[in-house]
Amino acid sequence: MRRDTGFALIAVLWVVVALGGIVGLAAGAARLGQRESINRIALTRGRWAAEACLAIAQARWDEHALADTATVDLGGRTWCAWRLTDPTARLNVNTADSGVLATALCGGRSPCAADGLVRLRDTAPLTDLVQAAAVPGLDSASLALLTVDGPGTVNVNAAPAPILLALPGLGPEAVARIEMRRLAGRPYASLDALAADLSPPARAALLARYGDLARQVTFTAPALVLTALGWVDGVGAPDRLHATIELLAIPLQGRLTLVRRRMW
User: Fold this and answer.
1) Rounded to 10 degrees, what is the CA torsion of 50, 51, 53, 54?
2) How far is it, in rounded angstroms, from Cα 122 to Cα 172?
3) Average pLDDT, the chain
4) pLDDT for residue 46 is more than 80
5) I need a labelling partner for 97 at 20 to 30 A (CA). Which of 39, 40, 48, 202 fits?
């Protein structure tokens, strides 16, 4: 009888342990489901917030103050922000001259990651820089010079020095003049205005490649990328779950003409 009682007690204990495990699993699943629901709600609120920032950005555009970005408190721990970028401040990987790409990325050295980029784009146009990141030898500093957006021209008044120095006809003196005028808030309006500011040798170098250079540059932003972010404080890992809306738009008088909209 004592043996039977012992077996019964052990069986009861195993049943208790099994039930405890089942209850624990159920509680964990419930917590996981609750967290997923909270994240979905937060992401929905984040999308609403991002849309709100797009509306604010449109109003700022009408006031000629779109570049005055800020983080906006929409109430209820919901926030949004936007950033504005000029894709012509970078080299378009799909259209840039292969020589310009090689000079900007590698200083003319060979072999160069630009060779892999050219082979990749010849297969199919790139739609995201994530595709370019797979090219051997292409690091984050190089990716910062590239884009897949815009018409393919380079904005002389916005592009960094490595890109400007890679363009035909622009030497160190011309690039130094461009950067000096940019810092002074007096950007150039044309190649002729730039040429007039250069020494005779630098002017001769620019004029010798004037046609090639004119095809590849612009002095204003023909397109803009407007990225709006929305989030709820304290939700998501590590502490924010962002909703992002990205617009590629052409700036026209009094409005932004939408070319592409992406959301994630």
Assistant:
1) 120
2) 32
3) 84
4) yes
5) 202
pTM score above 0.90: no
Q: Which residues contact 190 (CB under 8 A, 6 or more apart)?
A: 219
Give the tokens for residue 28: 């964990």
SS3 (DSSP) at 187? coil
Query: Does residue 192 have a pLDDT over 60?
Result: yes
| Secondary structure class of 226 (helix, strand, coil) | strand
The residue whose two tokens read 């310009």 is: 100
Residue 200: asked if its preceding bond is cis (omega within 30°), the reply is no
d(CA 153, CA 94) in angstroms, rounded, equals 11
Checking if the pLDDT of 142 tops 80, the result is yes
DSSP for 84-138, please give it. Answer: EE-GGGSEETTTS-HHHHHHHHHTT-SS-HHHHHHHHHHHS--SSHHHHTTSTT-
Centroid of chain to Cα 11? 61
**147 to 23, 53, 91, 169: CA distances (angstroms):** 52, 24, 6, 23
Confidence of residue 237 (pLDDT cuts 50, 70, 90): very low
